[in-house]
Amino acid sequence: MRELLSLEPGMVSWHDYPEPPLQSGEVRVKSLLTAVKHGTEAGLVTRTDPTLRKHYDPQLALFVDPPSDQPAASPIRVGNMTLGRVLDVGEAVQRFRVGDLVYGWLGIRETHTVREAQLFKLPEGVQPPDILCLDPADYALCGLRDSHVGLGDRVAVFGLGAIGLMAVQLLRSAGAREIIAVDPLAARRELAQRFGATLALDPATLDVGLVIKEQTGGGVDVALEMSGNARALSDAIRATRLAGTITTVGLYRSGSGPDLGWEWHFNRQTLIASRSMSEPNRDYPRWERARLRDTLVALFRLGALTSAGVLEPIVPFTEAREAYLRVLQEPSAGIKLTVRYE
User: Fold this and answer.
1) Mean pLDDT to the nearest integer, 56-61
2) Prior bond to 71 cis, omega within 30?
3) Of 112, 219, 259, 296, which is the most buried if we count CB atoms within 10 A?
4) What is the mean pLDDT of residues 103-131?
5) DSSP code of residue 169
6) Is the same domain home to 8 and 116?
7) What distance in Å separates the CA atoms of residue 226 and residue 170, rounded to the nearest whole number?
């Protein structure tokens, strides 16, 4: 059996692994599809993610230096979410049977032997590939809710990766009056328009803040910055109207940041950081992560959300290493790389 790991910065390689004996409470799964989380994994694989250098202390709610006795960094598993079929179940497993289609936050690996709690059954009525977009849709929905997007609002989405494209679809369902999609890649802008964006702009060739202000008669009510790019955040601030809201979902690298000396200060805007996996949710106890997930499952089932066009490219397992390195070096090579197992 083989899996894809990163043992050195900027590289991924194949590694063999033995199939461990199945323990009580464990489930063994044969992988069918695995999707990559490009932005997060790029930071981890290149070792530029700031969380690799600092330890988050939940008691202090601060990033601090890691303990001096912390062990050396272990190999980084690549891949984010896997859809698979149950091969075997251990004693005491109650929720799954052999043959069930299941999913979980699991990497590029032929099989997974995990605790029962790490897996979820594929919901009835949801197309199997769609479940691989539950993670980006989770972040997108939380970003919309944290922004208090309302019926008739004008909204701009900066960054049309998987999270941004999920956000465009959700904004259509939320009743946004205008949905402006911003990304330097033409293919992503075109897909956003298929998903309901009313205008798509290239920030590499336009002053998007100025164009949006002119097109909307004063700016958008809400800007959703999904890329973790400091320049995009600056553009989002410039595109947002007086007393509007800018919500960030992406993780910004250390040393990067927008210029807050201009529009943000003069226009008295609200800047929000959104992160769906951080409990409690802002609307807790009415909303928490399980409710976000249940809501998204219902939207996928209804066809209000789709992964079609987002899971791109889809490659065989044998080509996963080359494809992974390609999208790592050239973001235009795909939106959400997906590995198909033979």
Assistant:
1) 86
2) no
3) 296
4) 97
5) H
6) yes
7) 14
Query: What value does the mean pLDDT take over residues 236-259?
Result: 87
What is the full DSSP assignment across 2-66?
Answer: EEEEE-STT--EEEE---PPPPTTEEEEEEEEEE--HHHHHHHHTT--GGGTSEEETTTTEEEPP
Provide the phi-psi class of 337: left if phi over 0, else alpha when psi is between -120 and 50, else beta: beta
Count of domains observed in the chain: 2
Is 184 in the same domain as 249? yes
Strand, helix or coil for residue 286: coil
Under the banding of pLDDT at 50, 70 and 90, the label for residue 119 is very high
- CA-based nearest residue to 79, from 124, 110, 122: 110
CATH code, 191: 3.40.50.720
Domain span at 150: 136-273
Domain boundary among 220, 249, 273: 273
Distances (CA, A) of 319 to 36, 86, 202, 273, 315: 14, 24, 32, 37, 6
Report pTM. 0.93
Q: Are residues 209 and 268 in the same domain?
A: yes
Q: What is the pLDDT of residues 225-237, one digit of tens each?
A: 999 898 999 999 9
- The CA distance from 75 to 162, in Å, is 25
